[in-house]
Write a structure and sequence with these properties.
With 277 residues, this protein is of the alpha/beta class. Helix content is 36%, strand content 25%. It folds into two domains: 176 residues, P-loop containing nucleotide triphosphate hydrolases (Rossmann fold); 79 residues, no CATH class. It has a six-stranded mixed beta sheet, with helices on both faces. The chain has a four-stranded antiparallel beta sheet with strand order 2-1-4-5. A hairpin with a 2-residue loop joins strand 9 and strand 10. Helix 3 packs across helix 4 and helix 5 packs parallel to helix 6. The structure holds adenosine-5'-diphosphate and magnesium ion. Magnesium ion binds next to helix 1.
C-alpha cells in the first residue's frame, strides 16, 4: 500500500490584528490508499485547519502535504488546478455550500466545466450518472437548493465532490448538520461510494461514533496537536492516551458510559424517505 495523503509536521499560525493563534502545531500522519482516516477532537482543536492545509486551500505556516507522493507546497497554479480535480471536499453545512440561485444540475456540472474539457452532452450525461450514484432522482436536477432537504443537499455536495473522479475526499463534519435519521443514510452512501470507487477519505468529526463506524485508522486532536493515532479499533475503543480516554468517557454513547439510547422517534423528512432503497 502507498499513502494517498501524507502530512509532515504541518504548522498553521493564524495572524490577525496583531494576535496569533497556533491552530495546528506539528501534525503528521499518512492515509493509505483506499482507507478512511478519522480525525476527532473538540471544537477548535484544529481539525478543519488541517483539512484546508492538506489540500492547500490555505497555506500552512510550515510543513509538507503530499498527495499521491507529490509535494503540493511548491505547486504552480496549473498544478493546483490539477490537484483540485484529483481531490474533493465535502462541507458541514450542505445548503450553504451550494449557490442558492443555481439549479442542482448546474451545481453538479460546475466542477466538470471548470476542470475538464467535456462537451455539453458529456457533461449532461455525467451529471445524470452522478445524480444516480448519490441516490437523487432526475427530477431533482432542475430544482434549487432551498427546494431540497438538508440530506438531499448533502447528496448534491457529494456529487460535486465526486464529479471529476477524485481519489481522495476530505469530509469535514459531513453529517453534523443533518437529522439523526438522515445521518446514517449519508454515511452509508459514503461507505458504498468509497468501496465502489476505491476512494480514500479524511473524515473529520467531533462525533466519535461516526468516526468509529467509518474509519480504518484514526487520530485525536487536542489544541492543535495530534495526541494519538493508529488503528481505529485501538484508538477509539482502547485508547492509550489519557485525554482520549476522557473524551470517550464524556460521550453519551460510549460503551458503559451512560444510559442506553432512547428509542429514536423517526424525525424523517418526507423528501428523504422516498430515497430509501
Ligand atoms: P476545529 O475544526 O477543530 O473546530 P479549527 O481548525 O476551525 O478547529 O480552528 C482551530 C483554531 O484556529 C481555533 O482556535 C480557531 O478559532 C482558530 N481559527 C480558525 N480559523 C481561523 C482564521 N481564519 N483566523 C484566525 N483564527 C482561526
Ligand atoms: Mg471544524
Amino acid at each position: 500500500m502507498s499513502a494517498i495523503l501524507s502530512l509532515e509536521d504541518i504548522v498553521k499560525v493564524y495572524r490577525s490584528h496583531g494576535s496569533e493563534v497556533r491552530a495546528v502545531d506539528g501534525v503528521s500522519f499518512d492515509i493509505e490508499e483506499g482507507t478512511t482516516f478519522g480525525l476527532v477532537g473538540e471544537s477548535g482543536s484544529g481539525k478543519s485547519t488541517i483539512a484546508r492545509c492538506a489540500l492547500r486551500l490555505i497555506e500552512p505556516t510550515s510543513g509538507t502535504s503530499r498527495i499521491d507522493g507529490e509535494d503540493i507546497g511548491g505547486m504552480p497554479r496549473t498544478g493546483l488546478r490539477r490537484l483540485r480535480a484529483r481531490t474533493g471536499m465535502v462541507f458541514q453545512n450542505p445548503v450553504a455550500a451550494l449557490n442558492p440561485r443555481m439549479s442542482i444540475r448546474d451545481s453538479i456540472a460546475e466542477p466538470l466545466r471548470t476542470h475538464t474539457r467535456l462537451g455539453r452532452r458529456a457533461v449532461g450525461s455525467r451529471v445524470d450518472e452522478l445524480l444516480d450514484e448519490v441516490g437523487l432522482a432526475a427530477s431533482h436536477a432542475g430544482r434549487l437548493p432551498h427546494q431540497l432537504s438538508g440530506g438531499q443537499c448533502q447528496r448534491v455536495g457529494i456529487a460535486r465532490a465526486l464529479a471529476t473522479r477524485p481519489r481522495l475526499l476530505v469530509l469535514d463534519e459531513p453529517t453534523s448538520a443533518l437529522d439523526v435519521s438522515v445521518q446514517a443514510q449519508v454515511l452509508n452512501l459514503l461507505q458504498q461510494l468509497r468501496r465502489e470507487h476505491r476512494l480514500s477519505y479524511l473524515l473529520i468529526s467531533h462525533d466519535l461514533d461516526v468516526v468509529r463506524y467509518m474509519s480504518d485508522t484514526a487520530g485525536v486532536m487536542r489544541g492543535g496537536v495530534l495526541v494519538e493515532a493508529g488503528p481505529a479499533t485501538e484508538v477509539l475503543v482502547e485508547p492509550r492516551h489519557e485525554y482520549t480516554q476522557r473524551l470517550l468517557a464524556a460521550m453519551p454513547q460510549a460503551p458503559g458510559a451512560g444510559p442506553p439510547d432512547p428509542p429514536r422517534t423517526p424525525t424523517r423528512d418526507p423528501n428523504e424517505k422516498s430515497l430509501l432503497p
